[in-house]
Amino acid sequence: MRVLLGRVKSFAAAAAIAAVAAALPTAAPATAASAVAGNAPQVYGAWHCGDDACTWATVRDMTDFDHDNHWLIDRGDGHPSVNLVVLSFVNPLTLLSGTTNSGNTDGVPVGMNQAVVNYFTSHGIRVMLSIGGITYTDDWDTALAQNPTLLGQKAAALATRLGVGIEIDYEQSSGPNTAGLQAFIDAYRAAHPYDASGADPTARLTIDVAAGDRWLIDLDQYATAHWLTPGAPVLDYANAMVPSKQPSAGGAESNWQEHISGKANYSPPIPPLAPAKFTGSLYIAEGSQVRPECTDFSSSLQNATGSWTQNAAPAGAGTTNGLLGYMFWAAERPSTRGVTTDPPNTCEGGVGAGSSAYSVPVPMPPLRQS
User: Fold this and answer.
1) What domains are defined for the chain?
2) pLDDT digit string, tens, across residues 206-219
């Protein structure tokens, strides 16, 4: 995600758990969005930055973790607000090197542990780890130059150990090492082959692209042409990331339409991307204001764009209407300053109510393939 780390980017007693749950707001009633024709969201997830601006450099006390994140597993009626959580970020070079220090063990942030994964999976929520982020772009470059195959093997081993999927967040806008990234993907897929059923969580491998086609152009072109084709998929899907600030509904739809239409005038051209092969992303924590996307579904962008998102038609790739769904940036504390999704600013009323309005399935079902 477009975040700079450090800049932008503990219930011991049952009574305590009950008290927090009782204090959560109930989900807003479903609006007309639930009746919109088309393909309802299958992916409805949140990137998660932990409590330290996306470093996950400390082991969490799970009582405190539940206090700050209970809204994700309970939107107020006992159902999760999301069906996917992506823990962000793993440093690719640290992973390749197998670094152990105060914040990492064998190259993995110490906060990204089995307890955190199980917190979500025990409620039917799929978990993935994101490798990269804009802060680690240079480290992606270095790791891909050094040994991309070993990096892919280590990512696959990490997925096996925790029972999670992996997201590629490589935000190199100038001359990305697509050959190295291909070697990374080949190594990962040798351990965890593509699984259209979605039954194997470790086989879920995705990539982040820009909000539209006009940034991360080379990566976008290569990924769309080689890894995201419905007939021969290599990656499960892409996430069209958030732009520099929250867009309007029309701006978000325009960005997402660029992926569907492609850019035939570019050299090489960016081919069309099937709507079923990507999600659109929105902010829930941005700046100093609590966003309606977090707290008020009726006035949120996930409501305003719902009809478009469910009905967006293919324009050269794919056969079914509608994006895969939504991703939200980001749970808990995505930056050292600004709003967080800690209590009282939790997101049952926005993200959670949206999951009710759209009847988001938990656990995530097999995804549309074309």
Assistant:
1) 23-357 (3.20.20.80)
2) 999 999 999 999 99
